[in-house]
Amino acid sequence: MKLRISKPLATLIFLALLATLLGVFKFSSCEGNGWATPAQYIQACYSDIPALYGERDLDKDQWSYSSTTDAVEYPVLTGTVMWIFALATPAGENEIRTYYRINIAFLAALFILIAIIVYRIRPEFAYLTTLAPAAVGSLYINWDLWAIISMMLSIYWFDRKKYKHSAIAIGVSISTKFLPVFLLLPIVLILWRRNEVKELIRYIAITVLTFATINLPVLLTTPEGWLRFYELNFDRGQDWGSLWYALTSLGVNLGNTNFFAILALFVSVLFVSLLIFSTKNVITLADVSFIVLALVMIASKVYSPQYILWLVPLAVIAMSTRKDLHAFWIWQIAEVIYHVAIWQHLATVTGAKFGLPLGGYALITLIRILACLYFLGVLVKKQAKGGQFPHEFLFKSADSYP
């Protein structure tokens, strides 16, 4: 990927750098008080990075997957990053702060690189990546940016028909955080619609081989530690931020959460499949990736605060007209409100005198989901235009009816 530093790109890099510094400032109060509870929730600066340094024995330089009970709850490459940075952290009084600072320095660099990739895909809206307040406020919560950058590279290469590069990148991304596995659905459908069946088979084979090459050594040497991530995600019930947790909190108990989550996921898969096969022109992966992952997150049993970092760059590359901007900002406002709400509710749960009660948190969760659905609707209407997708009755204007 050749890169020429034009004036717009230089401006974008400056904005991205400014965003990373604003993120450092937002999280600085927790660094100052040693991530004390409930202060870290009241001040909305909680981070998994210092929390897991001791809880997963990384401070003892223990391999991330060697324990059967305290292995890290992430795929292999994230666990490897956590472990390598722990090895690089000198022991001492400021050990946790040093570990945190090493991690966020790399996360800041990754965010800037992600903004550049977005610029290469959708230059006219790339600035939104650096200005999205919910994303800037979530930069240093977790290690997700390590997976997001390889996911964005995979999308970039796929739409330029560099399928081998794309397949390797998505195999790496899935081995870092499992979420990008859902992008294999639109990838398969797009290649199928293009009648590139050989490329489809080759793409899946390279992805599987990449995933196996990264994961098999850990699976064979520390199988229980490797499995912990998958077991926790399969066994977990309805959790913070999910539609199911919000409904239950408001007294709407649907019963078997797994069943309804899988049902919602199936409906989402069907919806995306219909969209891809019904448009006049073959849709690009950049156009549909946000739709896929946003629907997956709505159907999921959890919505962690840092998930916004996945959605913002995908939302930006899905936009093609200024008419989408209002929906983007409505969604961002809802996400910012939710960002405040989750921490203030957790403050209440962890002993703060003041905070957001469960009912209020549940309502704000639903508002966030509705805002996301509205933004999705705007993007789907654009993609479905001219096709045979049922947008003719979903999006028909009022004055078109008799």
Brief write-up:
The chain crosses the membrane at residues 99-119, 131-156, 168-191, 203-220, 259-277, 328-346, 358-380. With 402 residues, this protein is mainly α. 68% of the residues lie in helices and 0% in strands.
Query: Helicity range of the residues?
Result: 55-70%
Q: Main sheet?
A: none
**Total count of strands:** 0
Mean pLDDT figure: 92
Which structural class fits the helix and strand makeup?
Answer: mainly alpha
Q: What is the succession of H and E elements? A: HHHHHHHHHHHHHHHHHHH
Question: From the structure provided, what is the oligomeric state, counting identical versus distinct chains?
Answer: single chain
Helical segment tally?
19
Roughly how many Å is the radius of gyration?
21 Å
Specify the overall morphology.
Answer: globular
**Residue share in β-strands:** under 5%
Distance between the termini: 53 Å
**What's the structural domain tally?**
1
Q: Stretches where pLDDT falls below 50 for ≥5 residues?
A: 386-402
Keywords: Membrane, Transmembrane, Transmembrane helix
Transmembrane segments: 99-119, 131-156, 168-191, 203-220, 259-277, 328-346, 358-380
